[in-house]
Amino acid sequence: MKKQGFDTKAIHAGLEKFSPDSMSVPIYQSVAYPYADAKEAAAIFTGEKPGYTYGRWDNPTVAVFEKRLAALENTESAIATASGMSAIFLLTHHLLSPGDAVVSSNRVYGGTFGLFETGLKKMGSQVHWVTAPDDISAWAAAITPKTKFLFVETPSNPALFVADIPALAALAKKHHLPLVVDNTIATPALQSPIDLGASVVVHSTTKYICGNGSSLGGIICGSRELVEGIRQSSIRYLGPAMSPFHAWLNLLGLETLGLRMERHCLNAMVVARFLEKHPRVETVNYPGLDSNPYRKLMGTNKMKGFSSLMSFVIKGNYADAVKFIDALKVLTHATHLGTCRSIVTHPASTTHSAMGETEMRKAGISPAMVRFSIGLEDKEDLIADIERALG
Question: In 285, 294, 350, 361, which residue has its Cα 20 to 30 A from 134's Cα atom?
């Protein structure tokens, strides 16, 4: 049978034969599953017979979502979690022991930075930050015998760093290490890290995969051995499972992901080009622009687009950035991204404030930086709103 396309898999992959059948995946809002007898219960728990054990470990609705996203990310398996951060935490907890280390780009989401910088210390592990992530030799220099995996968020939030995934994957393979890619911003609709040599993909499904800001969620996509190792151990005693209802909402989002990402990219390019020419804007960080140094990696990473996230620096200071944000009417001021609605955020005072001034500066985040997540509104309305707010 011919390999199915992305949009077909986004609608059909992972479907079970439910009884009665349904156009929408049923929501199994249950924490437990009755067994015919003690023998069946024992067989299901040992894996000798297919079945479900307990809501924190598995669920029919969640299982469809896991299978569908694994299919879209071209991995053997996947495990859904309560949030994007819980996915990264579970993976880190599974791969690291006290004394071990992770090597990571410092261009990461503020929550990821906090987990690696502060959380790992409490678990007896550590992070080696790569502050020049464009330089593959900087990654190589950070690897030690204690390193257990490489981690990169690409494109990154909010500075829009784009990694050379094949080069990082080759480095990881040379040192017999897994490369973990946070694919939240690009989504599998625009980028396939596994096809480029990565070992594991993580997502905050809260963003583009859900697509409307209604549902928290995360997922780890990787080998069957990795996923089942997590399912049989840490998710059982740590407990950050995705709920059936949130899995259902994310499944609805997946059905239109390909179409939405096309529109996100189209609208974002229009806005980025407008900002680049505006006299009140100092710099624009959007990899899709011809002037952006990461534009060349579109071919290297086989990307179909650079998503909707962008950041730019207003000429002035913090007060100028805030004045602009408060003047917007169509764009929503919120600490979120990846929804149908366009969103504006001030990273230095919200999503990345916990990093502190020094670390924010290293990561390219200034007080005058503004972040946009461009949605699906009419592009003419977005430009008019931004132009009026800039004055």
Answer: 350
